[in-house]
Write a structure and sequence with these properties.
single chain; 154 residues; mainly beta; 8-stranded antiparallel barrel
């Protein structure tokens, strides 16, 4: 069984274009409940179908399978609207790779950084561009952002 263990943070505003072009991501959700989510994602030239379980602390089950891009584009039409659109930047800092997602579309204005851990107690040094941790706030889950986009928050 695959496990995903990650912490999630908001990021101070900065000029992300300094990091290079990033990678365009588009994803949609076929199903999203508290118990699980099923998404399709195009990630540059590749596409994936991902199934995630509920989060316990910082951990959840995750299964990911590469699928043909044409299939992903067709499946995307079956997903809830709006799709999640974002540009991902990878930043290596103090032995960890941070994935910084700058959202566009209905979630424009939101930038989130995630760092995957080997275990839930692993310590990680935070870069100075980190604002605050939102790991425990379900509003920042991509599956929830597809239902209640950042642009609709008060």
């Amino acid at each position: 069984m695959a496990k995903e263990i990650e912490r999630k943070f908001l990021v101070h505003p900065r000029k992300w274009s300094d990091l290079g072009p990033g990678l365009e991501i588009r994803q949609g959700y076929l199903c999203a409940t508290k118990q699980s989510s099923v998404r399709v994602r195009t990630y540059g030239e590749k596409a994936f179908l991902t199934i995630k379980g509920s989060t316990t602390g910082l951990t959840r089950d995750e299964y990911e399978y590469e699928i043909p891009s044409d299939d992903a584009n067709e499946i995307m039409n079956l997903c809830e609207r709006p799709p999640i659109e974002k540009t991902r930047y990878r930043i290596v800092f103090k032995g960890h790779t941070w994935e910084v997602d700058e959202f566009s579309g209905e979630n424009r204005g939101l930038t989130v950084a995630e760092v995957e851990l080997k275990n839930a107690k692993e310590q990680v040094e935070l870069p100075d561009w980190i604002d605050r941790e939102v790991s425990g706030d379900p509003r920042y889950l991509n599956s929830n952002l597809s239902v209640k986009p950042f642009s609709t928050w008060k």
